[in-house]
Structure formats: C-alpha cells, structure tokens
Amino acid sequence: MSQLSTFHVGKYLFGVDVSLVQEVVRLQQITPVPLAAPEIAGLINLRGEVLTAIDLRIRLGLTPAEATREPVNVVIRVDDEPVSLLVDEIGGVLEVSQVPFEQTPSTVDDRVRDLLLGAYTLPDRLLLALNARQILDVGGQESRAA
Predict the structure, then answer these.
(1) Are the beta carbons of 9 and 134 closer than 8 angstroms?
(2) Which domains does the chain have, with CATH numbers?
(3) Cα-atom radius of gyration of the chain, to the nearest Å?
(4) For position 107, what pLDDT does the model report?
(5) Within 13 A of 94's CA, how many CA atoms are on the CB side?
(6) How remote is the C-alpha of 7 from its chain's centroid?
(7) What percentage of the chain's residues is helix, strand, coil (to nearest 5)?
(8) 3-class state of residue 30 by DSSP
(9) Scanning 1, 41, 45, 123, which has the fewest C-beta atoms within 10 Å of its C-beta?
(10) Cα 22–27–32 angle (5° rounding)?
(11) Tens-of-pLDDT digits for all 146 residues of the chain?
(12) 3-state secondary structure string across 53-77
C-alpha cells in the first residue's frame, strides 16, 4: 500500500488502498433490508448495480450520525464485488510510502482495532489503515448484495 484514499468517521481518519476504491458518490437512496445486521444500512442502486451499504459508524461501534448530516458513499471493490461504505466525510489520496507503518496503538478502541491493518503516523494525526475484507465480514460472514 503506497497510496490510501482517506475518509473520516467520527474522530478517526481512515484509509483504504486506492486500488480498492471504485468511486465516491454523494447520498444515494438507501432501501432498508428487513432483519439485516444493524451495520447494514440497506441497499443502494448505483447505475443499475445493487450494492450493500455498510454504515461504518455502526460497524465501528460509534454513535449514529446526526439525522441532518448526509453520509458519503465510498464504493470499494473486494474480490470484484462492489460495496458502499457510509462515511462522514471524504478526505483525499495520501502517499504513505515514506510514512512509518506501525501496529495499531492500544489507545484505539478494540472494536475499531479489530478492523485495521495498522496505522501511519502523520505529522498532525494518526491515519488508520482499514482491512477492507474485515470490514465486510459483518456478523462473521461476508456481506454481499443479493
């Protein structure tokens, strides 16, 4: 991983390998899925393709976003399956090849730490590298759009 696409969820700055990111789109209509895990916000239709939308705030054990705040969809592809991650705010693409990669500090909440590959120490904050496969493993099984 030398370039990470970054985004904010709660107090955290996360990044995923830029090669996994298909696109970033503003709010799409989300259709709820009855009896789905709480972190499954629902399904979105992205130009005819149905994607599962995962609310990262819920997945990470954070408080739900304010109703007045519209999440941003970061569409990632893992094993050629697109999934939308609902995030608070999009960042940019950061080159991290010269930044030290470390184990996730113990100060990061356990539920968040379990979903990470590690961390990069930036001059002004910590950039947490998400494990995309682990994020999709909702309830012990990978969530896929039907």
Answers:
(1) no
(2) 3-137 (2.40.50.180)
(3) 15
(4) 87
(5) 20
(6) 8
(7) 10, 50, 40
(8) coil
(9) 123
(10) 100
(11) 589 999 999 999 999 999 999 999 987 789 999 999 999 999 999 999 999 999 999 999 888 877 777 889 999 999 888 999 999 999 999 999 888 899 988 888 888 888 999 999 998 899 999 999 898 887 654 434 44
(12) EEEHHHHCCCCCCCCCCCCEEEEEE
Look up residue 56 and give its two tokens: 């990262």
Select from 105, 69, 109, 107 the least CA-distant residue to 86: 69
Amino acid identity, position 20: L
Q: What is the rounded CA–CA span in Å between residue 121 and residue 124?
A: 8
Residue carrying the six token digits 């930036």: 122
Q: Identify the burial level of 63 via C-beta atoms within 10 angstroms of its C-beta, where 0-12 means exposed, 13-18 middle and 19 or more buried.
A: exposed
